[in-house]
Write a structure and sequence with these properties.
GO molecular function (chain A): acyltransferase activity, transferring groups other than amino-acyl groups
Number of helices of chain B: 0
Strand order of the largest sheet of chain B: 1-2-3-5-4
Protein name (chain A): Thiolase family protein
Oligomer: heterodimer
Organism (chain A): Streptomyces tuirus
Distance between the termini of chain A: 10 Å
Distance between the termini of chain B: 29 Å
Structural class of chain B: mainly beta
Strand order of the largest sheet of chain A: 3-2-4-7-1-8-12-11-10
Number of strands of chain A: 12
Radius of gyration of chain A: 19 Å
CATH class of the largest domain in chain A: Alpha Beta
Strand content of chain B: over 45%
Number of domains of chain A: 2
Structural class of chain A: alpha/beta
Order of helices and strands of chain A: EHEHEHEHHHHEEEHEEHEHHHHEE
Shape of chain A: globular
Order of helices and strands of chain B: EEEEE
Shape of chain B: globular
Largest interface: A-B, 35 and 30 residues
InterPro entries (chain A): Thiolase, Thiolase-like, Thiolase_C_2, Thiolase_N
C-alpha cells in the first residue's frame, strides 16, 4: 500500500474564511495550526520541518514565537495564488529528502477590501499601463472568458451556473464566507463589473488561514485513521504563448496555459487519469476561470462545460463534483490560504468528514488546482 | 530588440468594459471616470491590448478597428495626455 517515500496528510485545520476585523492574519494562522496539530494528535514540538505562506499579512516563520521556539526549520513562501500549494511542496520534498518525518504547512492572509492593488513596476511594466487603466486582474479574467465563450460556443448562463453552484455549496459549508444561495437570474442581473462577468461571478479578496500536518511513510497510519496520500504535486510556470494577466501584447495563439502542464504532470506522476477524479478543487477566481480550468486540467473537453453544468455533473452528487466547499467564489481569496483550503476540503471529502456537502459513495481520488499571476499553476492528486 | 512597424488596423480579438473606477495609479480623465472598453486587437502577427473607443452597441469579437488616440488624463501642468486606442474602421479605410 504505502512506500517509504510516500507523504500523507494526517491532520488539517482551518480558520473560517470571511471577515473578522478583531483578528490578524497571524491570529488566524495560529488557530489553523493548532487545529491541524490536534487533528493529527501531535504537538508543535513533534514538527520537524515547516513552511508557511502569506502575501500581505506577515512573515510566517514568526509564528514560532506563538507556537514554541523549538528551533524547527521554517521556510517562508510567497508564490501568489500558488502560495499554499508551494508550502505543501516544500514540506513534502523535505520529508522525502529525509529532513524530518513530520511536517507542517500553513497559509494565511488578510486583504483589504476591493480589487487587488498592484504596482506596474513589480510586474516589469511601465507606469503608463496602470495610469491608463489597463492593469486590472478583473479585466484579464473578463477578456479571457469573453474569448473562451466565443471560441467554444458557451453561453453566459454557464457562468451563472458556476456561481450558483458555488454559493449553493457555500451555503452548506460552515467554513465558507458567502453563505447565501443565489439564483442564476440574481447572478446575471448583479452589477456588471467587466462583461461577460458580473459582480457575483467574481470572488473577493478576503481573509482566512489553513494548515496541514504531513507525515512520511507508514508512521502516517499510526497517527491517523484515514491518512490521505499526496499521490503527486506538480508546479509549473508559464511557457511562451500563454495568455496571462498584465500582458500589453500576446502572441496570436493558440495559447497554452501552465495549468495544462501542471495537471498533466500531476496525473502522470500519480498514474491516475482525469476521468478517475471523484472530487476536484479548481481555481475559481471568477466563474469563467473555473470553466476554463475544467478543460485545461483534462477533467472535461473544451466546450463540454455547459452540458456538464446543466446536467448537474459538477454538483456534490454529480459525476465530477467541483468546489464542494464553494471555492473562492463562496470562500473569498486570502491568497496565502487559498491553496491549503483546497487541500483541507479534498482531504475531508476523502476521509468522509466533509464539513459541508459530502460527496456520496466514499470517493477515493481527489484533485486540486491553483492558477495565478503571472502564469503559475500547481496541481495535486490525493488518494485514499 | 529592434523597432517593428505594426499595421494600424486589425480586428477585435476580445473585449470587455471597465465599469468601476480603478484604484491609483490609474489617473481618471479631467471630467472624472467614465466606464471604458478595453480589449485585444488582432494585428496579424501580434495581439495588442488597448483601449477601445467603440460604442457598446457596436462592439463584438471580429469588429474591424483602426488605431486612434483616446484622452487619458490631464497632467499636473495642464497637458491633456492621450493614449493609444482603436476605433471602428470606417467603410473604405482599409
Amino acid at each position: 500500500m504505502s512506500g517509504p517515500e510516500d507523504v500523507y496528510v494526517v491532520g488539517c485545520g482551518m480558520h473560517p474564511f470571511g471577515r473578522d476585523e478583531s483578528l490578524t492574519g497571524m491570529d488566524m494562522a495560529e488557530r489553523a495550526v493548532r487545529e491541524a496539530l490536534a487533528d493529527a494528535g501531535v504537538a508543535w514540538e513533534d514538527i520537524g520541518y515547516a513552511a508557511g505562506g502569506s502575501d500581505v499579512s506577515g512573515k510566517p516563520d514568526t509564528l514560532v514565537g506563538r507556537l514554541g521556539l523549538t528551533g524547527v526549520p521554517f521556510v517562508n513562501v510567497q508564490n501568489g495564488c500558488a502560495t499554499g500549494t508551494s508550502t505543501v511542496l516544500a514540506v513534502a520534498s523535505a520529508l522525502r529528502a529525509g529532513e524530518a518525518w513530520l511536517g507542517l504547512a500553513v497559509g494565511f492572509d488578510k486583504h483589504e477590501r476591493g480589487a487587488f492593488h498592484v504596482s506596474a513596476a513589480r510586474y516589469g511594466l511601465g507606469d503608463w499601463y496602470a495610469e491608463t487603466g489597463m492593469m486590472l486582474t478583473t479585466q484579464f479574467f473578463a477578456l479571457k472568458t469573453q474569448r473562451y465563450l466565443y471560441e467554444h460556443g458557451i453561453s453566459e448562463r454557464a457562468l451563472a451556473m458556476v456561481a450558483a453552484r458555488a454559493f449553493r455549496n457555500g451555503s452548506q459549508h460552515p467554513l465558507a464566507w458567502r453563505r447565501k444561495p443565489l439564483t442564476e437570474r440574481e447572478i446575471l442581473d448583479s452589477d456588471e463589473v467587466s462583461p461577460p462577468l458580473t459582480q457575483y461571478m467574481f470572488c473577493s479578496p478576503g481573509q482566512g488561514a489553513a494548515a496541514l500536518v504531513l507525515a512520511l511513510g507508514d508512521r502516517a497510519f499510526d497517527l491517523c485513521e484515514r491518512p490521505v496520500k499526496l499521490a503527486s504535486l506538480a508546479f509549473r510556470t508559464r511557457r511562451f504563448g500563454s495568455f496571462e494577466v498584465f500582458s500589453p501584447w500576446l502572441p496570436p495563439g493558440p495559447h497554452h496555459s501552465p495549468s495544462v502542464d501542471a495537471a498533466d504532470a500531476a496525473f502522470r506522476t500519480a498514474g491516475i487519469r482525469p476521468a478517475d477524479v471523484q472530487v476536484a478543487q479548481l481555481q475559481d477566481t471568477d466563474s469563467g476561470s473555473e470553466l476554463i480550468h475544467l478543460a485545461e486540467t483534462g477533467l472535461c473537453g473544451h466546450g463540454e462545460q455547459e452540458e456538464l453544468l446543466t446536467a448537474g455533473a459538477t454538483d456534490p452528487t454529480g459525476r465530477i463534483p467541483v468546489n464542494t466547499d464553494g471555492g473562492c467564489l463562496a470562500g473569498g481569496e486570502p491568497v496565502g490560504a487559498s491553496g491549503l483550503r483546497q487541500f483541507h476540503e479534498v482531504v475531508r471529502q476523502l476521509q468522509r468528514r466533509a464539513p459541508g456537502a459530502q460527496v456520496p459513495g466514499a470517493p477515493r481520488v481527489g484533485f486540486t488546482h491553483v492558477y495565478g499571476a503571472p502564469g503559475i499553476s500547481a496541481c495535486s492528486v490525493l488518494t485514499v | 530588440m529592434s523597432a517593428r512597424i505594426l499595421p494600424v488596423s486589425g480586428r477585435v480579438w476580445s473585449w470587455t468594459l471597465q465599469a468601476f473606477q480603478p484604484k491609483p495609479p490609474y489617473r481618471a480623465p479631467s471630467g472624472g471616470h467614465q466606464p471604458y472598453h478595453v480589449g485585444y486587437v488582432d494585428l496579424g502577427e501580434v495581439l495588442v491590448e488597448a483601449r477601445l473607443a467603440v460604442p457598446r452597441a457596436q462592439i463584438r469579437i471580429g469588429l474591424p478597428v483602426r488605431l486612434t488616440t483616446v484622452p487619458a488624463y490631464r497632467d499636473e501642468d495642464g497637458t491633456e495626455v492621450v493614449t493609444f486606442g482603436f476605433r471602428p474602421e470606417r467603410d473604405g479605410e482599409r
